[in-house]
Design brief:
mainly alpha; 0% strand
Length: 949
């Protein structure tokens, strides 16, 4: 029996109660729940779940347990029907120092929240989830986990639509397309809004073809497009250059009852403008008027851009004026920017400045884009000083130049050859905190290549690599061009292998650079091999590839091979351009196949191509080179009738031909029209020849046009001096030169080289060396052409020993002898009877990597035959057959072999004269009738037409 305290002792009862209370309080202060760390796993899950359901998140936080992926997933699974409890525990897990929820946990929480229609929270965690993706593979993993949770929970397919839109907005288009393709497997159709987001971002990222495929799939699964969808699809068609298809789509949508908005029509206008079809853009504008669709600032700006693209600035101004007149349209700085850019592109920067000032007066602020446009406009005109002033004024408009500003001005300096200013600008960029980028280095490389500073270009290349700037294809191709121009063929081949190894094996631009470089240095066989390699690697040649190769063949006189390339191009569906026909015309003249010239012009007309100023220049130069001035004059008059203004190159060609043919009065009269040449009439050497009628007509046509030549007087003065020297009037050329010095004329390398050549040719070698010394005093460094002239003069005057001594002094002077140098000396040795020395020189040139030409072999074989050394002559012929790829050498060996065997020295000598004649530079006229007749007799062997004779 339990004993009770007596009732009569209230104090004892009270005391007892107080002690009990103290005991209870003490237990509550020191209690640890059967110590949760001793709880089993199921017990811990139950305790956490109950506390979460009751909303006691603080109590959960005080529990002693370690978060893990398994625990978080298990709790979320148990409370999945209670979104608040799930969210509370997920947030608690996210705040832990040493734990972060994994992808699977994120996928569970977004499904739970989406089912509860807590869409803002769902999107927030989906963005966090997508942020965990480091690559496309992680994105695909997320999709797999979302599918797994969907099957486990069996609710909320809305998550799929949300993730589709988020992937699209973040530019994760592969993942977005994967979701779009697989949503159907979950019986879920994407919403129109998510589809529009996907389409819009595909177009924005230039995936226009894919966007059109997605649209087709949308229609198949029953998603009805809206006006926004239509605008995106029209834009996609336009970016695909299928503007007519876009127009058909618009008509189809309107027939289905869609009310298309101004955005759709603006896309159409922009599409036509991008194709250069301004009439199509005007038709869309008319259509907008018919349908009552209001035009906005974007509509008018696109039209301005179209007119500017066609250089129709007057119409562009009319559109700008219309914009100002419309109440609902406010002309913005972008519209003015397009207009200013248009005037800069046509070279009217003054007009551009006028509109810039007008823009500022309306209260609009200057922006960096317009400033960069003006800098670019001035640089293209060669007005680099004005471009620099624009850069300096940026601070006045609270603008800071960017890398584009500096790189544009840098390009201007490099184009003008002002490399010291270019490097100063680079230093300024660094001071302004703008690091030179790959465009900066590429620009410097091209500039240094342009001025021939190849060693400096290589230094810049090494500096770029040292600073960790990765080269682009432009840099590699520029370096390739530099090495080829330096004559470093082996270095160019090594770099070429490197370019292919770096993944540019399908880069047409790289192949074009290599082919062009090889063609320019006359290595047409090597260029053919690169072309074959291009086809082997399945890199598609473009019109530039074919044109470059055609031009290369034409320059070496292989007109038949050039036509084969033209035919191959046409079979590939690429039609020749005017530029290609210009090359073919040059090739026809070089190979003296004059009958082809007329056929080429007729072909051009058939194909709807019209001769350009370059075409007329090629024709005039060609007729001048073969001495047919009547045809050259007729072509000149046809050119001016067509509205083409003759340029200084064409006029110079006519003038130099007149000088060469001894028609000095006519040449000087034309020179007077090109430049102020006051001293010409006072020269006593002028003969009172009658000036031809054609020359008078040309002179009259030049009176106005010559003002636009903008050519330095030095160029024309050099033409006059060269013309006099070629006509044998070296003394008169010297007197003209002396007179010019008093007018402020600054002679250059070309001037002195021409005079030295002239004096050496007439045997006055002492005067030639005086000019060389005078040249050195002016700090002008003679080039190999100058020394070739001096060596030639010494050989002609019988001073072979002195010529050889000068030859051996060339390397210390930093000059490398070329094939012309060796041919001059070999000819001199042969004429002096020293064939042993001549053969030694040929061995030396081969050792130096210089291939002997047909002149080299012809000179030696002639000399050996004259000495009766048939055996050595046959050895040389055998050497040609075994090693030569030069068709002219092969042809020569076939022609001369029988004559050498029979010892027919006269025929060998005559053939040598013919070969020497056929290899003369274009522009040399056949002045000896005997040589001309022999040349014509051999036309079948050489493929030369009768018309050339």
């Amino acid at each position: 029996m339990p004993s009770f305290l007596p009732v009569s002792s209230p104090h004892l009862v009270l005391s007892h109660l107080r002690q009990r209370k103290f005991f209870l309080v003490s237990r509550s202060l020191h209690w640890k729940p059967r110590h949760e760390y001793k709880l089993t796993r199921p017990e811990l899950l139950d305790r956490i779940t109950r506390l979460l359901v009751l909303g006691r998140y603080d109590a959960v936080n005080k529990l002693s347990f370690d978060f893990s992926d398994d625990l978080l997933d298990s709790v979320l699974h148990k409370v999945r029907l209670n979104p608040n409890a799930s969210l509370g525990f997920f947030r608690l897990a996210s705040k832990q120092q040493h734990f972060r929820p994994n992808i699977k946990s994120y996928c569970k929480i977004v499904h739970i929240l989406s089912r509860a229609r807590m869409y803002d929270e769902t999107r927030a965690y989906l963005y966090e989830l997508v942020g965990l993706c480091k690559n496309n593979y992680a994105g695909f993993t997320i999709w797999d986990e979302l599918i797994g949770v969907y099957k486990e929970f069996t609710f909320s397919p809305a998550v799929f639509d949300m993730i589709l839109k988020i992937y699209a907005q973040k530019g994760m288009l592969k993942n977005a397309l994967h979701v779009f393709d697989n949503m159907g497997k979950c019986d879920c159709v994407p919403s129109l809004r998510s589809c529009n987001s996907l389409l819009s971002n595909l177009v924005k990222n230039s995936e226009t073809y894919v966007a059109l495929l997605v649209y087709e799939q949308m229609i198949k699964i029953g998603i009805v497009p809206d006006a926004f969808t239509c605008s995106i699809i029209v834009n996609a068609y336009c970016k695909e250059k299928k503007v007519e298809k876009a127009m058909e789509f618009v008509k189809e949508m309107e027939n289905l009852g869609f009310d298309l908005n101004v955005v759709t029509y603006n896309s159409l206008i922009d599409g036509y403008v991008s194709l250069g079809d301004i009439k199509g853009a005007e038709r869309v504008l008319e259509l907008m008027c018919e349908k009552g669709i209001s035009r906005n600032v974007i509509t008018y700006t696109s039209m301005i851009k179209g007119y500017c693209k066609h250089r129709r600035m007057e119409e562009a101004e009319n559109v700008l004026q219309r914009m100002k007149e419309e109440e609902d349209v406010i002309v913005d700085d972008y519209a003015y920017g397009v207009f200013i850019d248009g005037y800069c592109r046509v070279g009217k920067v003054d007009e551009a400045i006028k509109f810039r000032d007008e823009m500022l007066k309306t209260g609009l602020k200057m922006n960096l884009l317009i400033c960069n446009t003006l800098i670019n406009g001035y640089c293209k005109l060669g007005q680099v000083h004005e471009a620099k002033l624009v850069l300096r004024c940026l601070g006045d408009w609270d603008l800071r130049p960017d890398s584009f500003s500096y790189n544009t001005l840098l390009d201007g300096y490099c184009r003008e050859g002002h490399m010291s200013e270019a490097f100063k600008l680079c230093d300024e960029m660094l001071r302004q905190g703008i690091e030179p980028n790959v465009v900066t280095y590429n620009t410097l490389l091209k500039g240094l290549c342009h001025v021939g500073a190849f060693d400096d270009a290589l230094h810049v290349w090494r500096m770029m690599l040292k600073r960790g700037v990765p080269p682009t294809q432009v840099g590699y191709c520029t370096l390739l061009d530099i090495l080829l121009k330096m004559g470093d063929f082996s270095g160019a081949l090594k770099l070429w292998d490197n370019i292919l190894a770096r993944g540019y094996s399908k880069n047409t631009f790289a192949f074009n650079t290599m082919i062009n470089g090889l063609c320019k240095i006359g290595k047409i066989t090597e260029a053919e091999k690169i072309f074959d390699k291009m086809k082997e690697l399945e890199c598609l040649p473009d019109k530039i590839t074919y044109r470059t190769l055609t031009d290369g063949y034409c320059k070496v006189g292989k007109i038949e091979e050039a036509f084969k390339i033209r035919d191959l191009m046409e079979r590939k569906g690429i039609f020749p351009s005017v530029e290609m026909y210009n090359s073919l015309i040059n090739g026809a003249f070089k190979s003296r196949k004059l009958s082809i010239v007329g056929d080429l012009l007729a072909e051009m007309q058939t194909m709807g191509l019209y001769p350009s100023i370059v075409t007329y220049g090629a024709l005039i130069a060609g007729w001048c080179d073969i001495g047919m001035l009547d045809k050259a004059f007729n072509t000149y008059f046809e050119m001016t009738e067509k509205g083409f203004a003759p340029n200084v190159i064409i006029c110079s060609k006519i003038v130099s031909t007149l000088y060469r043919l001894g028609r000095i009065d006519e040449a000087n009269m034309l020179l007077q029209r090109i430049v102020d040449f006051d001293f010409v009439p006072d020269l006593k050497f002028l003969e009172n020849n009658v000036v031809g009628v054609d020359a008078q007509k040309i002179a009259k046509s030049l009176d106005e046009r010559a003002k636009s030549f903008c050519v330095p007087n030095n160029v024309v003065y050099n033409i006059a001096i060269a013309g006099l020297c070629k006509s044998g009037k070296v003394g008169d050329a010297r007197r003209v030169f002396s007179s010019l010095l008093f007018t402020g004329f600054n002679p250059d390398n070309f001037t002195y080289c021409t005079l030295i050549h002239g004096y050496a040719a007439v045997g006055d070698i002492n005067e030639a060396f005086k000019l060389r010394d005078e040249m050195l005093k002016r700090n002008l460094v003679p080039n190999i052409a100058t020394y070739n002239a001096l060596i030639n003069g010494l050989c002609k005057s019988g001073r072979l020993d002195r010529a050889l001594r000068l030859f051996h002094k060339l390397p210390p002077k930093g000059l490398t002898p070329n094939v012309v140098t060796y041919n001059i000396l070999i000819d001199g040795c042969c004429k002096a009877g020293d064939t042993r020395q001549a053969l030694s020189l040929m061995c030396k040139m081969i050792k130096e990597g210089i291939a002997p030409s047909v002149i080299t072999y012809s000179t030696l074989i002639k000399a050996l035959c004259e000495q009766g050394d048939t055996e050595e002559s046959m050895k040389l012929l055998d050497q040609i057959r075994k090693s030569s790829l030069d068709q002219s050498l092969v042809m020569y060996s076939k022609l001369v072999q029988d004559h050498v065997k029979s010892g027919n020295v006269i025929k060998v000598s005559k053939l040598h004269n013919v070969m020497h004649l056929s290899c003369l530079p274009s522009g040399v006229i056949f002045d000896k009738q005997m040589k001309l007749t022999e040349y014509c007799n051999l036309h079948d062997a050489y493929g030369v037409s009768e018309a050339a004779c």
